[in-house]
Specification:
- By secondary structure, this protein is of the alpha/beta class.
- The chain has 21 helices and 21 strands.
- It has an 11-stranded mixed beta sheet, with helices on both faces. Strands 14-13-15-12-16 form a 5-stranded parallel beta sheet. It has a 5-stranded parallel beta sheet with strand order 18-19-17-20-21, with helices on both faces.
- Strand 2 and strand 3 form a beta hairpin.
- Helix 12 (359-368) packs across helix 21 (525-540) and helix 13 packs across helix 16.
- The model has no long low-confidence stretch (mean pLDDT 93).
- The structure holds threonylcarbamoyladenylate (TXA) and magnesium ion.
Length: 542
């Protein structure tokens, strides 16, 4: 079959309409993406759409109209729900598809055997003209081969449909670039089945009860049925492997720069480009979601046009506003493959050092500058109150270290544990696993709260293995005599007791070898504060 590329003159629109009247399929521009249009009420015509697209027959089509009144005139639905009317008034013509109970007039093939029909009134003038000229509602899925990125130019349609359909109307680039938002209405709740140009926030501005279907951003579980059949298929995929990468600007750039540039492309923001050393496809400026949506499908098609490229790493947008629609398409193009670099973005800064070295002062400086400080001593106290820890201690040290309420008597425990190295290690084996769990919970809490970093103040950071949870470690050290003097004053210790305690601790080398940053505190308190402030700039600013 010869495929005509038509313009938008009266004559061309009428020619396209005549193909449709004869039961044919035509490439139709809309403001979202190009559609493959045929008479929605003609079974044979609709069958041809499925054939041209290679689409599974249980995936229903959207029925396009050019006037709200046509719902009734073409007898498409058994009723127009009240909420559907409200949404239509607010967003039609436009990129919103509303699922309604179907009438018997609409053939089952159009709705994939469902008892509902999806209706959309597109804003694109040429689409409206074609519907009017054809004189029937037009069933139209996106005009791509099933599974491929949707077409946003007539050329995209041509490359997928050449020889399969008689004509394509070239209406230029699609404005929105992503398919319409599909919603269902049930028990007064509007559910977004597929996010698109009308965002969930837009819907909420005219109607309160809006929900987003789980399957929009999550893979369907085994055996789960899709509310919108289109959501169960891998979709929008280029041939190259597509993989979403979640993380900060810096972590994304570092990650892609480590990849092989002869096989890999980075789909990134305009702001990333100058920092990336492998080939890039720019999706738009970081804050310009409209541009990202508009370019998305062309960008995905572009990947396969790059010589030798077998893998694309794509920046992962936030699921807000139009970002949700972009993410919904990308995550399907990626077959749900997401690399999460966010763990690298959340910094746990370990802070340790010997008694009297000045660790607490540094911790106070960080806290004053706004950092969250988590204190390991406090976690150790909390650990002693957990059943797990108590059970461990009872087995290790017997019942003598508990009071009548079953709480640990800390002095008794200290006596039992610190009398020998062996017993100290025993104590550590009882408490450290619990402390580590508590620490992880704290870190998770602050990470979820959106903190970029926490300081973890722990005197025995290395000895407990808690350093392994940290991204970097800062050690504070000082000359032994100075430390002795400080703890004598601070804790009212005798000279002998002070040295006894310090002798049990590790030397400077132990700390300097294991730490990324070392603060030497052999001067005044002011000097120490200044050093801590200097370091904080490096630690907390990206
Ligand atoms: O923007 C658009 O909607 C484009 C242009 C051409 O209008 N069309 C489009 O159609 O994207 P298509 O077939 O690629 O996607 C239609 C989506 C599918 O996910 C399908 O499963 C869902 O809408 N759908 C259609 N009828 C439905 C129904 N009765 N119930 C639930 N989902 C339905
Ligand atoms: Mg589609």
């Amino acid at each position: 079959m010869n495929t005509l590329l038509l313009g938008t003159s009266e004559e061309d629109i009428n020619l396209a309409a005549s193909f449709i009247k004869e039961g044919g399929v035509v490439g139709m521009p809309t403001e979202t993406v190009y559609g493959l249009a045929a008479n929605a009420l003609d079974e044979e015509a609709v069958k041809r759409i499925f054939e041209a697209k290679g689409r599974p027959s249980d995936n229903p089509l959207i029925v396009h109209i050019s006037d709200f009144e046509e719902i009734e005139r073409f007898n498409l639905v058994s009723e127009v729900p009240r909420v559907a009317k409200l949404l239509a008034d607010a967003f039609w013509p436009g990129p919103l598809t509303i699922i309604m109970p179907k009438s018997d007039n609409v053939p089952e093939i159009t709705t994939g055997g469902l008892s509902t029909v999806a209706v959309r009134f597109p804003a694109d003038k040429n689409a409206q003209r074609l519907i009017k000229a054809a004189g029937c509602p037009l069933a139209a899925p996106s005009a791509n081969l099933s599974g491929s990125p949707s077409p946003t130019t007539a050329n995209h349609v041509y490359s997928d449909m050449k020889g399969k359909i008689p004509a394509i109307i070239d209406g230029g680039e699609c404005k929105v670039g992503l398919e319409s938002t599909v919603v269902s209405i049930k028990d007064g709740v509007v559910t977004v089945l597929r996010p698109g140009g009308i965002t969930a926030e837009d819907l909420m501005s005219v109607y309160e009860r809006v929900e987003v279907c789980d399957a929009v951003l999550n893979k369907l579980k085994e055996g789960e049925t899709a509310l919108s059949p289109g959501m169960k298929y891998k979709h929008y995929s280029p041939n190259a492997r597509v993989c979403l990468v979640k993380g900060s600007d810096r972590s994304f750039r570092d990650f892609v720069n480590k990849q092989d540039g002869s096989k890999t492309v980075a789909l990134c923001y305009e702001e990333d480009k100058e920092h990336i050393t492998i080939p890039t496809i720019v999706m738009g400026s970081k804050a310009d979601l409209e541009a990202q949506a508009h370019n998305l499908f062309a960008d995905l098609r572009h990947i396969d046009e790059l010589e030798g490229v077998t893998c694309a790493y794509v920046r992962c947008p936030e699921a807000e506003g139009l970002g949700m629609a972009v993410l919904n398409r990308l995550i399907r193009a990626a077959g749900f493959e997401v690399i999460n670099l966010e763990a690298d973005d959340f910094k746990i800064i370990g802070l340790t050092g010997q008694s009297g070295a000045g660790k607490s002062t540094v911790s106070e400086v960080f806290e004053k500058l706004g950092a969250v400080v988590i204190n390991a001593d406090e976690l150790a106290h909390a650990a002693l109150k957990t059943e797990e820890c108590k059970e461990n201690l009872r087995l290790a040290f017997g019942g003598g270290i508990f009071d009548e309420n079953g709480e640990v008597i800390r002095k008794a425990l200290a006596r039992a544990a610190f009398c020998s190295k062996e017993n100290t290690e025993k104590l550590n084996r009882c408490t450290h696993p619990v402390i580590i769990e508590l620490a992880k919970n704290e870190f998770d809490y602050y990470k979820r709260a959106g903190e970029k970093a926490v300081v973890f103040d722990a005197p025995t950071l290395f000895e407990s293995g808690l350093n392994r949870l940290c991204s970097v470690v800062v050690s504070v050290i000082a000359d032994k005599d100075l430390r002795a003097q400080r703890i004598m004053e601070r804790d009212s210790l005798s000279f002998e007791d002070a040295y006894l305690r310090l002798n049990a601790q590790n030397d400077d080398k132990f700390y300097t070898e294991k730490s990324r940053y070392v603060i030497e505190n052999n001067g005044t308190a002011e000097e120490l504060i200044k050093k801590a402030e200097e370091l904080s700039k490096e630690l907390f600013d990206e």
